[in-house]
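Reviewer comment 2.1 asked that we show a complete input and output for one of the modelled complexes. We chose the SN-glycerol-3-phosphate case, as it is the one discussed in the main text.
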Amino acid sequence: MDPALRGDATGAQNPSKPPCVKAISVSGQQHGLVVLGEHDEVLRPAKLWCDTESAAEAEELSAKFGWKLVPSFTITKLLWLKRNEPETYAATRCVLLPHDYVNWWLTGRKVMELGDASGTGVLDVEGRRWDTAAMDAVDARVRELFPPLVASPDQAIGTLRPEVAAQLGLPAGVVVGPGSGDNAMSALGAGAAVDGATVVSQGTSGTIFASSSTAILDPTGLICPFCDATGNYLPLLCTLNCTRVLEEVREAFGLDHERLTELAEADAAGPGCGGVTWLPYLIGERTPCWPHASGALLGLRPGCMRPGLLYRAAIEGATLSLLSGFRRMTAAGLRPGAQLRLVGGGAKNRLWKQVVADAFGMEVVLPAEPDSAALGAALQAAAVLQGTTVSDYVAQHPPPMLDQVIKPNPEHRAAYDEALVRFESLGKQLFAQHTK
Ligand SMILES: Nc1ncnc2c1ncn2[C@@H]1O[C@H](COP(=O)(O)OP(=O)(O)O)[C@@H](O)[C@H]1O
Ligand SMILES: O=P(O)(O)OC[C@H](O)CO
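Response of the prediction step:
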């Protein structure tokens, strides 16, 4: 980022002076359903991206739309609301996504930006307009509920409302960019939106995405048909259970990630975990679309309940879940290149980075800023302020990468290949028959 846009107005880092904020962009969780009433009041707590309660509605709409919608998509949640909370649905006057809601609060404008709107399930991604036929298939009212789409990813949607500026202690006139979903923002902050790198994000969700100049419309629903935050596309795979699985071990044993990592590294069970498989579907799953699945630990032998072994099993389970989807993405035509770019909270873990390199059989590199979604939002805000396109701005200010390149260890490959076969086979045996 330009030094002039960082720290105080001169670019100098001066802790005694408050930062001189000139522009803001918001990065938010995708898919969430925020419903507003007649007086713009929030009618109920937002249904979040990871909520799988609308599984039946997702099945129904998939059949109507002709492509596989997973329960994450907002429109499935809206149909769920209509069925399960008809009074709230009847009172709803506007539907927003979480980041659009924050944008509205900041600026007073109710709009949706294309990257995030792609996660609603009613965007014509190629045409970059609302799919009114899909909306009508749900309910005649739906057209009225969604706000207009923003025209450009490169232009401000407004400025801070004076009362909000006062509340935040910010000067009047702060410009607000369109923002986007966290994955599209992460693609900016990891540089991938402009250089085409494949990103693996290890956050609460696990995602894999790469920029594309054409829309990828996958009727199986494995690859989500998202727009990015530059005017391009962002085909994306998402798993619901990633860092949460490791958190289970951390909470069960009361140890921190560093200590558990040391124990896992020292544990006798190396790659493949001595046959222990953790199917990580704690909150159900969307890739594969098994919303009713649960977590399962299999292959336990006497003495297996060691924190180090279980932590490794959690790392491997979350990784194999992503790898399984990635293999299907490459089979469907994705050409990922030789390197993966790792971001998100889990990318701080040295053992996990190596497991990803070994299991995927690819080199791993890391942006210097692991919170790439936040950096992406800052880059968008800077671009909007300067009046340049977001892609030009990121190309001119590429996010720096760490020097370290994590190479796959060929000696571990066979163990992970076997573990993946076991992982996929056990998952199918347990869940494919019982969940739609
Ligand atoms: N050293 C670590 N090893 C494994 N996981 C970690 C480590 N440090 C942080 N995390 C995980 O990263 C998560 C936060 O990642 P982040 O990408 O910020 O999440 P979110 O997707 O919710 O935005 C935390 O919930 C934590 O479980
Ligand atoms: O909590 P996160 O950052 O993993 O976000 C969830 C994503 O927005 C799901 O698409």
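Residues 203-205, 243, 246-247, 257, 344-346, 348-349 surround adenosine-5'-diphosphate (ligand 1) (CB under 6 Å). We note this here for comparison with the apo prediction described in Section 3.2.
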